[in-house]
Structure formats: C-alpha cells, structure tokens
Amino acid sequence: MEAMTTTLERIAPFKNEAIKNFTDPADEAAMRAALARVKDRFGERYPLVIGGAKVDTEKTIRSLNPANPAEVVGLIASASKAQALDAIEAATAAFEQWKRVPMPERAQYLFKAAALLRERRFEYDALLTLEVGKSWPEADGDTAESIDFLEFYAREALRYSEPHPVVPIDGERNEMIYIPLGVGAVIPPWNFAGAIMIGMTAASIVTGNTVVLKPSSDSAVIAAWFVDLLAEVGLPAGVVNFVPGSGSEIGDLIVSHPKIRYISFTGSKEVGLHINELAAKTAPGQKWIKRVVAEMGGKDSIVVAADADIDAAVEGVAVSAFGFQGQKCSACSRAIVDQSIYDEFVEKLKARVAKIKVGDPADPSNYMGPVVNQGALDSIGAYIETGKREGRLIHGGNRIGETGYFLEPTVIADVAPDARIAQEEIFGPVLAVIKAKNFDDAMEIANNTEFGLTGSLYTTDEQKIERAREDFFVGNLYFNRKSTGAFVGAHPFGGFNMSGTDSKAGGRDYLLLFMQAKTISRKV
Ligand code: NAD
Question: Is 506 touching ligand 1 by the criterion CB < 6 Å?
C-alpha cells in the first residue's frame, strides 16, 4: 500500500498554528526571557548575503525600536548598486541547479524551516515586538502565520508536483507540468514583517525560482534572521540573496533589470504602481514580459446595519481599527453606520476606545504600541489635523509622550463619504465614522474608494448578507466579525482594484503565480 500513496498523502493535512494569548504562565515567562535575549543582541551587524557569502558594506541601515528609537535593534548592511547586480548574477547562476531539484525535495526545506521557526517562536515574537512595535499576541500571530505559510506552500508544492489531468487523445501521451519562472525580486513591507516576507520568499523558492530579497529598512533584522535560518536548513547558496537597501537606489535597479523574471511585491499603492510601470518597460537583452504580483493598500470599511448587534459591531470595529495601531492593510479605517443606530454606536465606540491602553508593547498590558517610524508619525499626525476639519473628533488625536512614536487611538465622527480621511489610506490608528441613510446608501459608500481589500458587515438580516455577497466589492468579505485576522488556507488573502492583483496569498492558486505550465505531447 505504501508504494501507492503520494508524498502529499503521507503527511498530515495542513492545520493553522494556534496563536498564543499568553495566559499560560509558562508562555509569559518564555516571552519575557526571549525579550531579554533579543535586547542583548541589540546593535548586532547583519551583512548582505550574496551567493551564500556574507558581505559587509560601508553604508548601514539602522533599524530602531519604535517604542524607544534610541535603541538600535540592528545595523544592517545596505547594498550598493554593484552589490545588487552581484545578487542578481548569483541568483541567475543558482537558478540553473535549483530549477532541477524536484519540487517534493524543495518542499522539505520549507518543512524544516517551519520546524526551526516553531522552536524559536518566542525569539521571533520578541523581535517583532522590538523591531516593529507589535503587542505580544500580534507578534505571535505574525510568527504563527509565517509557520503557516511555510507548511501550506510546502504541501501546495507537493500537490502541484502530482500529475495534472489532460484530456486523453488516441495515439498520443500528453502531460502538463509546472516549471519555475526564473529569478524573482521579492519586495515585502514592514508590517507583517515575518509573515509576508517569509510567505513571498517561500512561495518563490519552493516552485524552483531563485530570489533577490530586498526587505523593508524598518524590518530588515527579522529578514536577516530568516535568511540565516534558511542557511541553517541547508538551502543551497544563491537561492535566496539578501540585499537590503534604499528603494529608489537599488529597488528601481533590481525591478528594471533584464534578468529579473518576476516581481513579488507587497506594500503601498504608490510604490506598487511605480514598480508595475518600471517592470512593463523592456530592457535591452530582456527575453520575457515580467510578471508583477503586487498586493497594495486598503481603505477598508465595516458596515453596521440598522439590525446589527451593536455591541458586537463596536467590538469588531475597535479591534479592526486599532489592533497593531491600525497598521494592517486589512484594518478598518471607515465605520459606515446606519443613521437609526448611529448615535448609540458612536457613544458605545467612544467608551470602548477609551479603554485601549497605549504604551511600550514589550509590556503585555498595553494593547497598542507605537507606529513604525517618525515618517509614519508625521504623516498620520497630518491626517489627524485634516480629520479634525473634516469631522468631529470624538476620541484621541494626540501624540503620547516624546520618546517613542505613540499616538492615541483616534476616532473622527460625522465624516463625509468623499472626505480625504474617508478615501486615502492613512495606515495608522485613525478611524472615520460615516453616517449612512440606509443600507443601500451604506453599500454605495462602502464601494466608493479606489481600493477593494477587506470589508465587513454586521447584520442579522439574511437578505442584506445576500446583497453584500454580490455587491460589496472586496477581495476578503466578512460577516459579523472583524475585518482583520485572515488565516492561511482558510481566508486566501488579496484585494481588488488599487488594492492589487488579488493574488490570494495562502490560497490554492497562489503558487501558480510563481510558475509557468509546459505541455508535453508524445506520439505513441
Ligand atoms: P512601501 O510601499 O513603502 O514599501 C514596501 C516595500 O517596497 C519596502 O520593502 C520598500 O523598501 C520597497 N520599495 C520602496 N520603494 C521602492 C522602489 N522604488 N523599488 C523597489 N522597492 C521599493 O510600503 P510599507 O510602508 O512597507 O507597507 C505598508 C503598505 O503595505 C500599506 O499600504 C499596506 O496597505 C500595504 N500592505 C498590503 C498588503 C496586502 O496584502 N494587500 C499587506 C500588507 C501591507
């Protein structure tokens, strides 16, 4: 019997990692110890990794603790243009061998990486808290999702390496196989500093591509840790090349290079569109049309209908808007509330938000930590000023303290549907509350932005649910729950319109984006 089962059938089905809530004293103690260990490593230097060789540079990126920017989490080598070119050459050379490694064998590297990440879970959690300001549960959610991506894409690779049915024809033996694309530029954001960076890299390599990984400067230490972990599990040199650096200096060069076959990007609309435009230009010597997978911003709405459970809606809006300081692409930044319950909703929301505790996320009693950097603090602050003119400030609006980048959770009510703070991605703890005349009006407002990432509807009415299933134009739609917290495999994730190419990370179609199909016919 053993001989008849495939590798995929022999392994346990995919199951999401449970997220720790740190109520277990053993978990709490482990996290405190991990925070201390990571702090002991503050100021460590992280080199580039090109073709397996560690390369130091004169220029460095300082990754700071946003809760206390005087603390340097790590000094990361910053690649020059010449070093970025070296990385592309190393990836091009490594591709020739890596593409020949059978997919099930490549999957084993992901399984091993997941196992090691599980062992080091608290260290990764602690680093996410200290490098990007995640609360303990948010940090653990990011690490758990990283493990999930590795486990899920490894299984997906096994599935794709099995035969794909084609229609039989007399006199021929036909098959269709999936082969890799080539050298990919992987460009992740800082906000899911572990999960998105690991997910895009894992999908690239398991399908047989080689990678030039350019992380965000705000989260380059976690990327350096992961690149080290890949070396530990024996990933061959050159398969993942690590080149942190300035987007405008080396980012453009990498994206437009003729040997880059595809770009896997997650980040803002502005940078995504810029990359898409650059990638569309054919460089001399380029043999292909580059593929761009770009997952971009959001301006996500929660609609609260007249018949909703108001308390549940208040809770869902508060956690979706202010979890990780509103710095999730799926964060609720617009609550669209039926006028018949509007006043009650706003009063209850105000009371709920007043309970949110803001402070250093290394202290688990704080729900909200700092925003990621000075630039974010300034730009969110400017939006708050705009919001005060565009609506009625009912909570927050101020910076807290002068050391870290802390902001109060901010709620602005009576905002017009076309106001700037109702249309532009703020990417911080600022929520606009919009009054809708009725459900038709609410649905129209929900669809009135250029984005289409996540959305949620609170209602007890089946007809409204049916209507929203058809008309609420978002890649991830939720009913009677928060708009954040997509689980790998359960909620394949990606958005419409200016939210990106709807690549559905964590879904069964995702790996196809990193491969091309080859049909082989033989006369028999
Ligand atoms: P960003 O666009 O500023 O940066 C993203 C990445 O692009 C970083 O690694 C950055 O260094 C790099 N970059 C910048 N300029 C570049 C250039 N010219 N060439 C190549 N690379 C360049 O975004 P961010 O601030 O890191 O992340 C926040 C944004 O990401 C938000 O808009 C958020 O909505 C979005 N996001 C989207 C999703 C999704 O799945 N749709 C998920 C997470 C985050």
Answer: no
Query: Is the separation of the CB atoms in 120 and 147 below 8 Å?
Result: no
The 3-state DSSP class for residue 79 equals coil
Q: What is the enclosing helix (H) or strand (E) of 454?
A: strand 454-458
With a 6 Å cutoff on the Cβ, whether 296 touches ligand 1 is yes
| One-letter-per-residue 3-state SS of 26-40 | HHHHHHHHHHHHHHH
What span, in angstroms and rounded, lies between the C-alpha atoms of 351 and 434? Answer: 18
Q: What is the pLDDT of residues 407-451, one digit of tens each?
A: 999 999 999 999 999 999 999 999 999 999 999 999 999 999 999
**Tokens 């129209």 belong to which residue?**
444
0.85 cut: is pTM over it?
A: yes
Instruction: Give the residue, by CA position, lying nearest to ligand 1 atom 39.
Output: 295
What span, in angstroms and rounded, lies between the C-alpha atoms of 232 and 47?
Answer: 16
Alpha carbon distance, N-terminus to C-terminus of the chain: 30
Secondary structure letter of residue 87 according to DSSP: H
- Summarised one tens digit per residue, pLDDT across range 52-83 is 999 999 999 999 999 999 999 999 999 999 99
- H or E segment to which residue 292 belongs: strand 291-295
Q: Is residue 80 helix, strand or coil?
A: coil
How far out from the chain centre does Cα 341 lie? 34
Rg over CA atoms, the chain: 23
Q: Which residues are CB-neighbours of 329 under 8 A, at least 6 positions away?
A: 191, 295, 296, 297, 298, 300, 453, 454, 495, 499
Rounded distance between C-alpha atoms, residue 314 and residue 87, angstroms: 49
Distance (Å) from CA 291 to ligand 1 centroid: 17
Among 192, 216, 499, the mutation site with the greatest number of ligand 1 atoms within 8 A of its Cβ is: 216
